[in-house]
Specification:
It is a single chain. This protein is an alpha/beta fold and 425 residues long. It folds into two domains: 234 residues, 3-Layer(aba) Sandwich (Rossmann fold), CATH 3.40.50.12170; 129 residues, no CATH class. The protein has a seven-stranded mixed sheet, with helices on both faces. The longest helix is centred in the middle third of the chain and has 15 residues.
Length: 425
Amino acid sequence: MKLLLPFLFVFLTSTRSPAQNSPVSLNNGPRILAAAERVNVYLPLIKGRKVGIFANQTSMVGNTHLVDTLRKLGVDIKVIFGPEHGFRGTADAGEKVGNYIDEKTGIPVVSLYGSKRRPSAEDVKDADILIFDIQDVGVRFYTFISSLEEFMEAAFELGKPLMILDRPNPNGFYVDGPVLDKKFQSFVGRQPVPIVYGMTIAEYAFMIAGEKWLSEKANTRYDYYKNHAQNSADTPFHFQVIKCGNYTHKSKYVLPVRPSPNLPDIQSVYLYPSTCFFEGTVLSEGRGTNKQFQVFGHPSLPKNLYSFTPNPNEGAKSSKLYGQVCYGWSLSGTPEEVLKKVDNKIQLKWLMEAYQLFPRKDSFFIFPKSGKMEESFFNKLAGNNELWQQVKAGKSEAAIRESWEPKLSEFKVTRKKYLLYEDFE
């Protein structure tokens, strides 16, 4: 087998006009290219090989899905893996999706969301190389980084070559939030990183491998080939990254495809790190509207506030307070207006104000069936058992932020070691 180095960084050497529905930016300058669009770079590395692809509806090359693009180019795709929301991206948040045959391609689809989170040896037995291409939004509780970790771990343990097609991070221009305490580890937060970690999916992958956050077997294999692959005559295992073109962490990248059913536009993506906290409360976070994570409220809040009524829709068939008039807040606006509201940090003021106005404060946070707040979904989102108590005690935002140190500053130092693109500072 031809030697393939364990790391492959490639740079854009040609330009082309934007395709319809292609990635755009709020900044002026060259069009940002997701790695999947740089077919001429990675096609020679997979042509003639049997491929397994972890993908969803965001895995686009212009107007065409990556799977369809590669099949037209003669790539032999043996299996597709799907994350939360499914391969086509239509399932509700948390909805379990089973295995099936993709109607369009006839390729088997293996669900990696539910009881099964990683491919088995049987799933990948016909694949010579595995590819990961899913758009992340740069938020710790967005489950695709957990899916990435499971996929990496399986590839490393099974000795399967892994290629990551990188995609820009739409929230990659800042770092903020409490660092997860691993006592509150779950699929919505697995590693000691802040809520907004300011890394692309490939940079994050290098960090979890480099910091030895994978299984012992995966870490051992990674270390061995990192140190020995270039001197080996034949290296069946390798780990490759294809970089984005024209992207830096100063970029304001606008997604061409909604990353999941309840993040309909870039405004929701910008607000999501701050307003997703409401998923752990009795308030509606806007599911069942067309302004998910841009509006939030509850029927018992003051009637002079902004009003909305959530109802079942595609991607949110069941959620809180359907059919009830909710009173609360709307943060919607143009992308530029929402960016100003976010102001490059996790905004706690909306959560704190909602709590102060809520009449039945003892029922604001959703307690689990066990009755122990330590086991609550809110704590999984926050990554600790302190934030809800700080809000309840009326702590100032400055005091809460101070409690995030020194771990937040320590993470920023760790993050710098794995960046592939110019940073925002």
